Amino acid sequence: MTDKKRLWHKRLNDFESFDRIELQVVPRYKTSGMSGDEWRQHVSVKFYFKGEVVHETGWNSMQNAMMMLPGEWARAQEPIPSRIIEMEHEGFCDQPSCPNQAEGRFRIKRETSERGAWLHEEESRYHDSYRQFCKFISGAEIVGAKMLTTTTSRSTERAPTSPPMSLSHRRAASSSR
Ligand SMILES: [Zn+2]
Q1: Global pTM?
Q2: Which of 13, 30, 66, 155 is deepest in the core (most CB within 10 A)?
Q3: What is the pLDDT of residues 141-164, one digit of tens each?
Q4: Are 35 and 58 found together in one domain?
């Protein structure tokens, strides 16, 4: 018997798969024996996660792209692109749109539901969850070689405004309620 818990990466409650979406008209020269060669308009649509293109598509006009985008946005993350999963495993910072490598993992010492209510401690009996950020907060405890420290899932909620990166990271990793 072992009491060693598994360690799971837990996304922020308001995690979104894409932090940047670009629509751009790009000229395309079409060759065709049927209708002849001609310049055609093409709208390239790129979905980014932390600076990398993780999904790509396109339409023949900006109008069509705008109208089709909501459906494409939903489909493109069912399931979440595998590259995003890889990047999470590679240790990219959990702060939305931050492209840095995380410097440490923060163990969530007390879990909340998605609505913010505290969960019973038995809910995390068989595994520990962590989040990862690119800066250590001052006074954070670094535990062993895994560089684990503690936070709570509730304390990772962010304010609606976007504070400077250092402030938002501090709140995201804060260990106090
Ligand atoms: Zn970061």
Answers
A1: 0.69
A2: 155
A3: 443 334 455 555 555 444 444 444
A4: yes
